[in-house]
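Exercise 3.2. Students should predict the tertiary structure of the chain below and write it as C-alpha cells, then compare their answer with the key that follows.

Predict this chain's 3D structure.
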Amino acid sequence: MVPRPVLAVVLALTSALAVPATAQEAKRRWDELCQLRKDKLDIVLPQAMRENGIDMWIVAGREGHNDPNAMLLGDGYIGDVGYYVFTDRGGGRIERAAFGIGGAAFDQCPLYDLRPAPSEMAAFVQTRQPNKIGINVASEIGSADGLSHSLYEKLRETLGPALSARMVSAEKLVSDFRGRHTALGVAAFAKAGEYSRTIVERALSNEVIRPGHTTTGDVAWWMMEQLHKEGLGNSFGLPSIYILGPGPRGPVSGDHVIQPGDLITVDWGVNYLTAYTDMKRMAYVLKPGENAPPAGVQRAYDKGQLIRGMILDQIRPGVTAGDALAAVNRKVAATPGFVLGKYDDPSADPKMTDVVIGSHSVGDLGHGSGPSMADFNPVRMTYTLRPGNLLSVELFVYTVVPEWGTRKIKIPLEDNGVVTDSGLQWAYPPNSRILLVK
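Answer key:
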C-alpha cells in the first residue's frame, strides 16, 4: 500500500500536470483555428471578391448579434457596433480593417491591417470609393443574411446616400468564401469526420446497445456525452436515431427500446473548429441464431450503394451542381427497377425502388453554403462545383424487403468528401456495410 503522505504528493503532482495538458490542447486548437482564418482571408477571399465583382465587403455586428461569418473572420468583442471591412485595392491581397472589434483572443491572432474606430467608417469608405459594396442580405443562404434591419439602416446612415446606393447583396460572395476550403480547412474537416464516424460506429455496437434494454434516446445521449468529453460541437443538436424496420418508424431519439431484428439508422454531425459534418450510419440487431441481416435488407442496402456510385460518377469541377444532379437523375431513371421518387412518399409499385438524392453542400455548416446537388437548395444548384468544395453525398432508396412484407423500407446513405480535379474524394472512410449488434 502506498503511504498516505506519498499518495497525497502523487495526486497533487498528477493534478498539476493535468492542467498544462488541457491547456496545451486548447492552445493547439487555437493555433489551428488562427491559421484556418488566415488561410481563408489570404487565399479564398481574394478569389471570392474578384469573381463576384465586389471591391468592398462590409460585415456588420453588434454586441449580442454576431454575423454568421464572424467566427471565420476572427470573432472578437464588439461593445456597441463593429464592422469587418474588406477592400480590394489591387495586388494579391485584400485590405482588412476591423472597426470597433477587439479583445484578447482577437489580438492574439492578428488578421487585420487596420483597427480604426467606428466613427472613422464613413471617411474610410469615402477614401476608397468602392464601386460595389457587398452586404450580407440574401434570398436563400442563411449564412449570407446576417445584416439586421437596424444595422442596415445604421450602415446607410453612416455611409450616406451616394455610397449606400452602391450596396449589393453579397450572397454569392459569402457562398464562395464559406464553400471553398484550403488544405488546412480540408484537414480540419477530415478530423471532424473521424470524430463523427468513430463515435457513431461505437454507438451502434454492443459497447452502448443492450437489446431489450437500451432506448434510441439512450444512444443519442451517449453520443452527446462523447462530444462533451472531446470538447466538440454538433451540427444539428441531438442525433436523430430511429428504427427503419421491420415495423413502422418509431419516435426519433425517444423511448423505443431497441430489440433483436431492428434496423436502426443514425443521422448526425460533429463540429470541430470551423468544420461541420453530416453523416448517417445504420445497424441491424441480430436475432438469436443470425450472423447477418436478412437477405432482403442487404439487397436494399446494396441498391443504395449502387446509386451512390452513380452520384460519384457525376461529381467533377467545372459543372454546375444542378447539372450534375440532372445527370444522376437521368442515369437513375434509365436503370431498370429504379424510379425517381419523393422524400418519404414512395410509389405504390412494389417492383420499383424509389430514389431521392439530396447531395448538399457541407463543411461550413452541416447543411453548407456552397454548391448543392439538392433541389431544396435552388440557388445553390446554379453554382459551379470547384476544387475545395465539400459535399455530403446523401441519398435515400425506398424498396421492399420481402421478409418484412410489402411496405417499402427507407435506406439512407450519407457521407462527406471534397471535390478535387479528379472528382470527389472521401474525407474519411465512408459507410461500406451494415453494422451488426448482437
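Discussion points: The first strand starts at residue 56 and ends at 62. The CA atoms of residues 243 and 264 lie 5 Å apart.
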